Amino acid sequence: MDPIVDATRELLDVHVNAWMAACLGVGVLAIIVAWVLHARLVGRDEGSDAMKRAGRAIHLGVRGFLRAHLAALAALALAGTVLLLFAFNRTGEAWTTALAFSAGCVGSGLAGVLGLRVVTASGARTAQAAASRGLGAALRTSHMAAAAAALYVIGFAVVSIAALHLGTGDPRRLLAFGLGASVTALVARVAGGIFAKAADVGLHLAVRANQDIPDDDTRNPGVVADDAGDCVESVAGMGADLYESFAAASLAAMSLGAFAWSAVEKSGNSDVRSAIEGLDAGPATLVLFPVTLFAAGIVAALLAAPFVKTENERKIGAALQRSTMVGAVLFTAGAAALTFALGLARPEVTQALTGAAREADEPWRYNGPAGVLWAVLAGLVLGLALGRIAEWNTSQDRPPARKVAEESEAGPPANVLSGLALGMASCVWPSLAIALTAGVAHYMAGVYGVSLAAVGLLATLAVPFAVHAFGAAAENACGVAEIVRLGPDARRRTDALDAAAAATAAMGKSYATGATALTSLALLATFREVYDRLHPGAASHLRLDLADVQVQLGLIVGAALPFLFSSFCIRAVGRVARTLADQIVNEFKESRPLGGEAPQPNHTKFVAGGARRAIRRAVPAALLAIGAPIVVGFSPLGARGLAAMLVGATLTATTLAFTLTNAGTAWDNAKRYVASGVFGGKGSPAYRAAVTGDVVGDPMKDAAGPGLHTFIKLMALLSLVLLPFFPA
Q1: How far is residue 539's CA from residue 558's CA, in Å, rounded to a whole number?
Q2: What are phi and psi of 544, to 5 degrees?
Q3: If exposure means fewest CB atoms within 10 Å of the residue's CB, which of 60, 72, 492, 607 is most exposed?
Q4: Alpha-carbon distance 76 to 73, whole Å?
Q5: Per-position b or e across 242-278, b if 16+ CB within 10 A of its CB
Q6: What does the alpha-carbon distance between residue 242 and residue 459 come to, in Å, rounded to a whole number?
C-alpha cells in the first residue's frame, strides 16, 4: 500500500468533506467570475476595421500555437497514461492513478487555453479604449483580461485539488494529478518560451537581412508570431507553471500534515494527541488546512482586483502594486481567521508539528501559539520581498538597470558583461530570503511549516499573476496600436501600459521561482517521509552524509543538470529563430511582396509550424527532466543518490533561474531606458549595444530561466511516483 494513502485514508470524513466542498465552491466562483469578465471584455468595442484585422491576425496566430500545443499535450498525456497503467497494474490503483494524471493534463491545458483566449481578445479593445476613452479605460480593459486569465488558472487548480480529495483519503490521485500538470507545464513553459523568443529574434533577423520587410505590419507573419508569442509565454506558460505549483504544494502540505499526525500517534504524548484530535475537523484538519488557504487566497484576489485604477501614466505601476498589497492584507486576515476557526492556534498543535513535545534534545523549536499561521505568513512576506528585489534589480527606473544602459555607451561587450554581472549578483538576496523563510517556517511548524510557507506564497498568486498577464495584454495593445498607426495620444497611453508591464516583468517570475524553491523543499521532505515508511527503520539510510560517495555523486550530477537544461533551451531558441527568419525572408522574396494590397499570410499555419519546431527542440530538455530521476534511481546510486541529486538540482536551479531571469529583464529594460532618449536614444551606438544585450537576454529570461521551474518540480514529482520501485 502507498505510504501516503496509509497515512491519510482514515482521516477524511463527512465534516471534512463539507470543508472541501466549500473550497470547491470558491474555486467554481473564481471560474464564474473569470467567465463574466471574459464576456464583458468581448462585449467592448474593438475599434476600426484595421484594428479588428490586427486583433484577428493575433488571434489566428495564437490558434496556430494552440493546435501544435494541444497535439503535443494529447500525445504526452496518452503516453503517460499508458505507462502509469503498466507501472501500477499490480497495485489495484492503476486506473484511478492514470485518470488523475490525465485530469492534471486536461485541467492545466484547459485553464491555459481559456486564459490565452481572453488575453488575445484584449489587444484591439485595449488599444481602442486608449484611443477613445483614455488611459484609465485602457488600464481597466487590459487588467480585466489579465484578471480573468489568472482566475481561470487558480480557479481550475483549486477545483481540481478539492474535487480529487472530496470523499476520499487517497492522495495518490493528487500526486498523479501533479505529475500530469508538470507534463503540461513542460510543454507550455519550455516549448512556449522557446517559440516566443524565437519569434522575437527571428523577426529581427529577417528585418536585418532584408530592409524592405516591414517590422510593424501584419502582412509580415513574424510580427503576428511575435505578438502571439508574448501571450503564449506570459499566460499559457506562467499559468501552467503556477497550476503545477498549486498541485505540488498541496500534495506536499497534505502529505506532511498526515505524516505529522502519524508521528503524534507514535509519540505517546496524551496532551498533544488530544489537542490534534480536538481540532475542528480532527487530525484531518492538517490535511484540509492548505486547501482552505488557497480558497482564502481566491477571495482576497477577487476583492483586490478593483484597486487597479489610475489616470496618471506615471502611476500605473503603483496601481498594480496597490492591488498586490491589498490582496496580501486580506489574505492575512483570512488565514488568521481560518487558523483560529479550525483550532490550529493552540500551542499543543505547534508542539506536535515542531516535535518540541517529543524531541527534548532539539530545543530550537517554537512551542507557542499559531505556529502554522506564522509559517504561512513567512511565505506571504517572501513573495512580496521577492517582487521588490526583482523590481529593484531590473526596473529601468532603478540604478542597476540604468548602469547597464550606461555601460552600453562602450559597446555591446560592455553591455553584455554588465548584464551578466548584474544577474549573478541579483541571485544572492532572493536566495537568502528563501533560506530565511524556510528556516523560519521550519522553526514555527516543522517540515509541515515549510510546505505551508509555499502555500502562503502561492495562495495570493492570482494577484501577481494578473500583473504578469497584464504585460501580455499591454504588449498586444501596443502591437495593435503600432500596426494600425494610431494617433500620438493613443500611442503614448499604450506605451505607458507597456512600460509599466516591463517594469513588473521580473516580479511574476520571481514569485514563481520562490514558489518552486519552497515547493521543492517540501517535496524533498515528503520524499524522505515516504521512503521511511516504505523501508521502516531505514530513515538514517537517506540522510545525506557528505562523506558518502553516493551522496557526493548525486549532488554533483544534480548541480550540473540545470546548466545542461538551460543550454538546451537557449540553443533551441537560436535554431528555431533562424528557421523562422529564413521562412519570413523566403515568403517575402518568392511567395508575394509584402507591399501594396498583398493578401494576409496564413498566420495560423506560420505560427503552428514554428510551435512544432519549438516543441521538437524542447524534446532534449524534456527527456533530461524525465530521464534523470529514472536513470539515477535505478542506478547503483539508488534512492539516496536520487535524493542528493534532487537537492543539488533544486539549489542550483533556484540561483540559476534568478540569474537568468534578472539579467535578461535588466537588458530589456536597459534598452527601453536608452530608447527613451538618454545616451543618444534610438539609433545611437548605445542603443545598438543595448539591443544586442536584449537579444542575448531574451532566451535567458523567457525560456531557460522559467523552464527551470518545471524542470525541478517534474523531477521531484516523478521521483515520488516511482520511489516504490527504486532499490533501497
Answers
A1: 21
A2: -85, 90
A3: 492
A4: 5
A5: bbbbbbbbbbbbbbbbbbbbbbbeebebeebbebbee
A6: 11
DSSP state of 701: I
| Cut 0.70: pTM above it | yes
Alpha-carbon distance of 656 to 646, in angstroms, equals 15
Q: How far apart are CA 195 and CA 190, in angstroms?
A: 9
- Check: CB of residue 162 under 8 Å from CB of residue 20: yes
- If you compute the radius of gyration of the chain from its CA atoms, what whole number of angstroms results? 25
Distance CA(238)–CA(248), nearest Å, equals 15
Q: Which three cell numbers stand for residue 127?
A: 488599444
pLDDT value, residue 456: 92
Dihedral sign of CA atoms 330, 333, 336, 341 in order: negative
- Give me the average pLDDT of each 10-residue run along the chain (728 residues): 56 66 90 92 84 85 87 86 76 74 86 86 87 85 89 90 70 78 86 88 81 72 83 83 86 84 73 76 82 91 84 77 88 92 86 65 71 93 91 88 91 92 94 94 90 91 82 83 82 81 76 89 86 68 74 92 94 91 78 53 84 90 91 88 92 94 91 88 88 90 89 90 78
Q: Which amino acid type is present at position 624? A: L
Grid coordinates belonging to 529: 517521509
The answer to whether 550 and 683 have CB atoms below 8 angstroms apart is: no
Cβ atoms of 222 and 492 within 8 Å: the answer is: no
For residue 492 the three cell numbers come to: 503614448
Cell digits of residue 676: 527613451
* Most distant CA pair in the chain, distance: 85
Q: What is the DSSP letter of 186?
A: I
CA atoms within 13 A on the CB side of 148: 28
Contact, 441 vs 275, CB < 8 A?
no
The C-alpha cell that represents 446 in the structure block: 516543522
Specify the pLDDT at position 593: 47
Of 110, 468, 162, 464, give the one whose Cα is nearest residue 300.
464
> What is the rounded CA–CA span in Å between residue 298 and residue 609?
37
Give the CA distances from residue 144 to residues 147, 306, 500, in Å, rounded to whole numbers and listed in that order: 5, 9, 16
DSSP state of 724: G
How far CA 390 is from CA of 23, 377, 473, 504, 583, in Å, comes to 32, 20, 21, 8, 37
Residue 715: its pLDDT value, please? 92
Confidence (pLDDT) at 727:
74
The total number of residues shown for the chain amounts to 728
Would you state the pLDDT for residue 541?
A: 62
pLDDT value of position 353: 82
Judged on CB neighbours under 10 Å (0-12, 13-18, 19+), 599 is exposed
CA gap 317, 322 in Å, rounded: 9
Pick from 319, 471, 408, 482: nearest CA to 666: 408
- Spatial separation of the C-alpha atoms in residues 466 and 142, rounded to whole Å: 10
Cα–Cα distance for residue pair 375/430, rounded to 1 Å: 18
Q: Which three cell numbers stand for residue 34?
A: 473569470
Q: Which grid cell sits at 684? A: 545611437
Cα distance between residue 311 and residue 309, in whole Å: 7
Distance in angstroms (rounded) separating the CA atoms of residues 74 and 492: 43
| Amino acid identity at 249 | A
Distance between CA atoms of residues 485 and 496, nearest Å: 16
Q: Where are the alpha helices (DSSP H) in 88-220?
A: 94-120, 122-132, 135-165, 172-185, 192-209
Distances in whole angstroms, Cα of residue 487 to Cα of each of 329, 478, 490, 491, 494? 40, 12, 6, 6, 11
Nearest alpha carbon to residue 126 among 464, 470, 465, 468: 470
Q: Note the pLDDT of residue 724.
A: 80
